Amino acid sequence: IVAQFQPKVLAGQHVVVTAGPTFEALDPIRGITNHSSGKMGFSIARAARDAGAEVTLIAGPVHLPTPRGVRRVDVKSAQDMLGATLQAVQTAAIFVATAAVADWRPATHSEHKIKKDGSGKPPVLHFVENEDILLTVAQGARAKGGDLFCVGFAAESENLVEHAKAKRERKGIPLLVGNIGPLTFGQDHNSLLLVDAKGVRELPRAPKLTLARELVAEIAARVPEYVR
Ligand code: CTP
Ligand code: CA
Example GO molecular function term (predicted)? Predict the structure, then answer.
């Protein structure tokens, strides 16, 4: 259905969405990243805008057009994404973390291209863990005080229900959304598992924008208890 016919259930609310992968540089031309397409996050940004929200979309490196009327902040690394997110959520009522944030970054970033040294031995790479953006936001004063409703996503390759329940509790968030496998990077369809304090509910396989609209309705229905 077209945008203007969507119920304005988030009218005037500031919604922050992270989307896509992050890119963790190793040297000026190489880095580690992942296969996240950003489509789910961009669909949620669009659905939130269509629901009347003011949307900030914090995007890792993806090849997707910005939904009209959405403020987009492009970032590369998890550290950049954390900085942009902490800034944006200061005025937000809802934070939806769909980004596939790299869990680790190279411990050192080489200013120049790492060259083969002729020995035939590959370099040994060291990594450090990236800060958990969702956890940091969810443990912040605004989320703890009930002014910021946080939603997480989980991509699991096995035991989705158990992992999703555990992840929701570990992150201390009211709602966690699981991608029902198999991992569907870049596809236009998906099915989702909603996990909250009451239990588990499935949103059956549908186009990502349809699922995003359903998710926005689910979030809006929960937010009045949080937003004062
Ligand atoms: N997330 C985040 N910052 C990170 C890692 C994850 O904000 N450094 C967010 C993701 O955007 C997602 C949620 O946390 O909303 C769950 O991400 P996921 O990778 O499934 O979980 P992790 O906590 O990283 O645990 P693991 O990858 O080991 O399953
Ligand atoms: Ca992870």
Answer: phosphopantothenate--cysteine ligase activity
